[in-house]
Design brief:
It comes from Micromonospora marina. The chain has ten helices and 17 strands. It is an alpha/beta fold. Helix 2 packs antiparallel against helix 4, helix 2 packs parallel to helix 8 and helix 5 runs parallel beside helix 6.
Amino acid sequence: MINKRRSTAVLIGLLAAAALIGPSPARADDETTEPVAEPPKVELVLDVSGSMRAKDIDGRSRISVAQQAFNEVVDALPDETQLGIRVLGATYRGKDKKQGCLDTQQIVPVGPVDRTQAKAAVAGLRPTGFTPVGLALRSAAQDLGTGSTARRIVLITDGEDTCAPPDPCDVARELAAQGTRLVVDTLGLAPDEKVRRQLLCIAGATGGTYTAAQSADELTGRIKQLVDRARDTYTAAPAVVGGGTACEGAPLLAPGVYSDREAFSEHRWYRVPVRPGQELRASVSVALDRPVNPDYGVLLRATAPDGRELVRGVDAGSGRTDVVSAGLRWSAAEEEDEDGPSAEPTPGAEQAVRTVCLVVSNSFAARPGTRAQPGMPVELTVDVVAASPAPDGPDLGRGWVLLLLLTLAGLLTGLVAGLLTRWWVHTWRTN
């Protein structure tokens, strides 16, 4: 009978503890219980439209420079990387725009690379037709498929899309909004402002980069960097999370990297549990994937559940950046230092977990005609580590010790000054 009562008491205690602890925090790697290492996947998308015949890169045609760069990249490709190649504007020689704007083909499927096959496929390309960039991007995303890690498209082009719709910027936003974990890096081969703006828009919508390549070496080096980046980064893609409209009910986050979307001038809330002796470190980046007014900022705050602000980190852009970021760090020890000595702790209180609310805000304002949906891409990084206060220096700056040191320093200074003065006067009189 006694054992039965003890068992009942233990069960009740466990249930009560579970109720007090509440739901476990979301983790960036919760999607797979046993992470499986996927090979990095990259698809190179090459513009083979008529303008690629221009001979303005080191005295050579743009297509020949691109072909050389492809050959060198294929030779240096890591064995574990799966590569595909897609072209646009490579086959249709007529003037029917409707037909020409369907001209995109995958000439090397995504998979382990057959270097001889890949080089032969690229060597036979001749500049021909239109520039359906949007359609090629959409098709390349389908080529790469889905998976638990991010995939990369590297777009090399010398001109803006001549076939919209679909507009390539809209396609990039569409792919990003689907949470397809796809990054598009763009390389521009012509010093044209319209092309630059379009490629910046494509890259910004997906968290990629834009580079203007003005020589064969620049193009080769940049493609190699991007292919290597597919191998070295994004081994685990950010987990998709939806921020709340208030701290209460906001998603509970464990250390990890998360992606979200935030509308113009919106506030999104997240919660992070922090134990005594730990320090919260958080950063947020918002990608400018569409035109916004030049004055804006991003604000990241940590607050208590009752709304009291603990710390904030703010950074503002000038209208020319493609990503705006902010970061902060906070520990309970900092709050205790500001409030003065705390009262005698209650037994067991030292192990209490504090819930810190993270608030991501922005002051973006869209330009006329700019789409408001989907929201701006947000990447939030959360980490909780052992608190690391600045190391204490020698205890010389407190109370009477400092006063005594200052007094001694003054006496010594006066004594030395007096001796030097007497020596100088004596020497002057002697001479």
